[in-house]
Amino acid sequence: MKISNSITCRLKLQHETICEIIFDLDEQQLLKEIRPDKWSIHENIAHLARYQLVFMERINKILLTGNPSFGRYKAEDDPEFEGWRTRPTNDLIKQINADREDILRLIEGISETELNKTGTHPVYGNLNIMKWTEFFLLHEAHHLLTIFQLANYK
């Protein structure tokens, strides 16, 4: 088993969609809460930035311990998330770009044997590293769709 071209391409490029969606928005639009009790564009970006680190921590734990169990990540339960929410959007995007390089190096540096190592998700069960990476990318894509919807809400 090796990392698929689809995963590699999305790891390299998918996050760049953020800038394409928000390029013409001002700070007020980024911070505006369109729906009560739902995140703004900025908060979605802060979540994506923070979750990249969570993802890397999980992959490293899988590599070191083999089949660890993880709870569902909820930003509201993460004491570090509030600090991410207070950072300027441009800083978050720079951090996403820098951390994505680290994620890419991490994933591309994993041997074919290590790709079979698993970690347990509370809903989806045992996932190997390739499936964890797919889950990470699909989670990110969900938030990219949300950002698109908020940016174009009329």
From TrEMBL:
Pfam families, per the entry: DinB_2
Matching Gene3D superfamilies: dinb family like domain
Coiled-coil blocks: none
InterPro entries in UniProt: DinB-like, DinB/YfiT-like
Domain DinB-like as annotated: residue spans: 24-147
Protein name stated in the entry: Damage-inducible protein DinB
Organism: Mucilaginibacter pocheonensis
